[in-house]
Amino acid sequence: MKKNLLVLILLFAIIFISATVISSCHKKDPNENINWIEGLVINDGSPAVDGCGWVIVVQDKRYEPKQQLDSEFRYDSLKIEVDFVLTDKNGNYCFGSLKQIDIKHIRKR
What we know:
Blueprint lengths: L1 H22 L13 E7 L10 E5 L2 E5 L12 E13 L8 E10 L1
Parallel strand pairs: 3-5
Antiparallel strand pairs: 1-2, 1-4, 2-3, 4-5
């Protein structure tokens, strides 16, 4: 009797552990924790002639990206979704009038 009870307990333990392992193996959505915000990429003129270069417009505010945009995002009036962190620095162009952002994720809309 004790042997049957021990086998039954071990069987339940194996089933429980297996179910726990299997349920924790699902892939998480890589976009799950991204704070996507709609915006536009604007070509605001060449910095060589006092333009602002490529600018990101979000909620009617213009920002200078900290990093250079990939070529696939360098189109004037391109609709995008972006996740960024506002830095404490002003941009290098446009006479330093734009706040600089550090882009974490960007995609076309």
